[in-house]
Amino acid sequence: MAPRVSDHQSPLPVSEATGLALPPSSQAEDLRPRWTVLDSLLCGAFAGAIAKTVIAPLDRTKIIFQVSTNRFSAKEAFRLIYCSYMKDGLLSLWRGNSATMMRVMPYAAIQFCSHDQYKQLLGGYYGYQGKALPPFQRFLAGSLAGTTAAMLTYPLDMVRARMAVTAREMYSNIMHVFVRISQEEGVRTLYRGFTPTIMGVIPYAGITFFTYETLKKLHTEKTKRPQPYPLERLAFGACAGLIGQSASYPLDVVRRRMQTAGVTGWSYGTILGTMREIVAREGVVRGLYKGLSMNWIKGPIAVGISLSTFDITHSLLLKLHQMGYFAH
Length: 328
What we know:
Layout: H1 25-31, H2 37-54, H3 56-66, H4 74-88, H5 97-126, H6 135-165, H7 174-184, H8 194-223, H9 230-259, H10 261-264, H11 271-282, H12 284-288, H13 292-322
């Protein structure tokens, strides 16, 4: 999920932490109580939902290749999309997206909101309250935010992966997935792949938040402009997403293999065992990095849309608060 740093939390005219312009002190005092945790949760949920819906067909295709032993190529990926469309119709490309929405909306909301809270906690603990966090603390705040969100929404990620790689006849809806997995494979199966997920989220979220904030800070120092333009913000988010996803991608493949083992016929017990089996059968690059090139396409799109949508809804909510449409 792509991170975004709130523009209102530093008391300085230009935030040292984010490089974003802040209103004059009198206006800032007026705005602070109006931007609530609920606002942050709503904006994050909406941004995550829009971004994931747009790239859902590419995401589903990537998962199908990740959990199979077939070689990945752009030609084969788009052939799979075309065949799915011809066989099952246009909506089949969004199969599993309802489960994605149930996961990504709380995931994005929790991640955006908790990141601000961790920044405040770390800033107070290390003596950087109201100032830019050092690089390691900046990375730590992002990692903690991603870990918090992943821990609270993991079973929904498992359900989404199962729906993405199976036919409608096997799982008719989200509740059917939960019930059938619990009855046939046990409740613990809903948490299969949890460890590689957390191990992947720590570098992914940490690097993504760190890169995005650092690029915005450097931009402000270089251009002397308080805020980047929308296209610049999109580019910063795309770079952050690319670096973060590339660093943690092998663990994403391992996670998907373990999540879908019950329906693909393979048996994966541990992280190292899964990695060894993938490398032995498919090689390092074509196994552990299968589908990464598609991630380089969909990742920047998702991050850019998420950041832009969050910015728009953030500004809209602040304006509505100022106009007195919401009680506070």
